[in-house]
Amino acid sequence: MNKLMMGALMGAFLLAGCGAKTTDNGAVSGANGSSSAITGAGSTFVYPVLSAWSADYLKANGVKVNYQSIGSGGGISQVKAGTVNFGASDKPLSPDELASAGLAQFPIIIGGVVPVVHIQGISKGQLKLTGSLLADIYLGKLLKWNDPAIVALNPGVKLPDAAITAVHRSDGSGTTFNFTHYLSQVSPAWKAGPSEGTSVNWTGGVGGKGNEGVAAYVDQIPNSIGYVEYAYVVQNNMAWAYLRNAAGNFVAPSAASFQAAAASADWTNAKEFDLVMTNAPGAQAFPITASTFILMPKNPSNKAASDAALKFFDWALENGKPQAAKLDYVPLPDALVKQIEDYTKANIK
Amino acid sequence: MDTTDPSKPQAGPSGDPDVTDRRADTELGIAGTTMRTRGVWPERLFHAFTGGAAWFVLLILLAVTYSMASGGWLAFKTFGFAFVTSDKWDVVNGQFGALVPIYGTLVTSAIALIIAVPISIGIALFLTEIAPAWTRQPIAMAIELLAAVPSIIYGMWGLFMFAPFMATHIEPWLNDHLGSVPIIGPLFTGPPIGIGMLTAGIVLGIMVIPFIASVARDVFNAVPASLRESAVALGATRWERLCHVTLPHTRSAIVGAIFLGLGRALGETMAVTFVLGNAHDLSVSLLMPSNSIAAAIANEFTEADTALYRSSLIALAFMLFVVTFIVLSIAKLMLARVERNMGRTH
Among the four A57, B59, B236, B299, which has the fewest Cβ within 10 Å? Predict the structure, then answer.
């Protein structure tokens, strides 16, 4: 009977071990593949649009892009190790970190992180929130939906006398990074407390795995609030809330408001595109707008593959817009695309 | 030759294993030198193969232990014993403690066993002693099929079907009726959100039932017919036969079946992650979300970007190893004690 037990135990550990190993092995085998294939790894957020683009690109140009959505952290370490041609991260690296790793970085796509609620009788676009209220809810300071602070902001909306369940991401994620980055800017208490990161020290609430996990929890738990990528809001028809932006306007999440945020963000002065767009100044800018960044070595060891990857990204920035919009992503504004093209020409050999 | 025990080759006069082999051959009535030499090598190969297989398991066990201990070394070195006693899990500030995942793992597994053990043993007893012969095979098949259902299916069922049921029916009832009872009351207070340790424990319980039940059924089937018949001949009722013959006879094998279920419950990842709530919060209430070791590792490994974070997750895996070892040792000790006491009274 002991042997049986050991077997069960070992199984569990081997599985855990395998889970860790696949990221390394997968990426390594990708890089060793044929030289005409481009390999990349990283952010799960861009995976749907990147795979749609690579399918189109394969049809148009016969070049295959292998992208493994192992998470931003994994993407960064893989591209640093040189096992993939490009990495993708939801969080920009600082110019210092880029310089020490010999990497270049540029944004590729825009998305938004949207607060969603599940309150009886409240449908999408009925509730208004501010960043500091959002921070207080997630800090566990604001416990009930009929708190005077929320009621004052929402005259005429019937808010229940019910405890709020705050749903967060249980896995480390760029979505959480952008969400907490925003909260840190608008709430000093948040900055001093949980602060910002791909996962932080949450106070109470429940954690769902992935956007789909958070969406499912919010759907299941009455009087809950969560934050998910915009695409999930659209696809699951979730009850999103207005957020007040830096200019003082309540803005709905939409392609237009994300693009307004991207347009008003100060890209021209951001060294190596090191810019997180949250709390952008534009009048119609949605406050939690995010972008995913591509990381590539400045002096690639495999120049042919690196050139092919750059060509793919140029193609995607120019021709991938309709495909991106179809998947509820927001393409970059034209001025930014121009800036990226100049940057890659100048920086990546 | 008749008195020599074949299982103890060294007891032979010459102490040469070949001699014993030869004897065994002659005992079996196989004679002649060709037959004898033909018999020796397969025997040795078989011996080497089975022995190798057994040592292989031990080797892997040691390798796994070593790699987890060395991977988690940074975390153990940084936090010391506080890694086990601290309930902090603050990624941003690099503070990690394993108390919440350990607690969540133990509590959910305990709930699972409390539910699964009586039901599984009931199933096994029914199938072996009570059920009409024609129902035994279909029910046994159903149990084995349940064991083959992937855990993610249990997880999704738990999240989409069972958690809402818990939230609307069971948990409000627990709040109202047990929440104010002294001592056990705090276990059943808290918002009825349907996701938490109780739900996870019940889902786990359902998952381990087929494992315990199918092993227990085999064990009960192996009770010698002579023992049962003797009990019947002495005028024992069915109940007396179960209590005084079947269960005492199979006690240690049943504990083995429970260990198997416990092993699955302690290490289960996907199903737990769906319904446990994955919150690093320590709370007494079973209705509150918590975290388990396996779920925490599965959730956080991909984005563990600092060395200390990664090391803490590996250290968590090592803790699961240690926790399982301790739980098994305690169960073994208890079993040994029971056996000794039984030996005295009879």
Answer: B59
